[in-house]
Amino acid sequence: MNNFSYKRAGSIRDALVQAGTGEHTSYIAGGTNLVDLMKYNLTRPDLLIDLNRVDDHHAIFETPEGGLMLGAFATNADTAWHPLVEARYPLLSRAILAGASAQIRNMATNGGNLLQRTRCYYFYDANVPCNKREPGSGCSAIAGYNRIMAILGASESCIAVFPSDMCVALAALRAMVHVEGREGRRRIAFADFHRLPEDTPELDNNLLPGEIITGIELPPNGFANNYSYLKLRDRNSYAFALVSVATGLELEGDVIREARIALGGVAHKPWRVSGAEEFLAGKTATPENFAHAADIILQGAAGYQHNAFKIELAKRAIVRNSMMALKPETQLPGAQPSA
Ligand SMILES: Cc1cc2nc3c(=O)[nH]c(=O)nc-3n(C[C@H](O)[C@H](O)[C@H](O)COP(=O)(O)OP(=O)(O)OC[C@H]3O[C@@H](n4cnc5c(N)ncnc54)[C@H](O)[C@@H]3O)c2cc1C
Ligand code: SF4
Question: Is 0.85 topped by the overall pTM?
Answer without folding.
Answer: yes
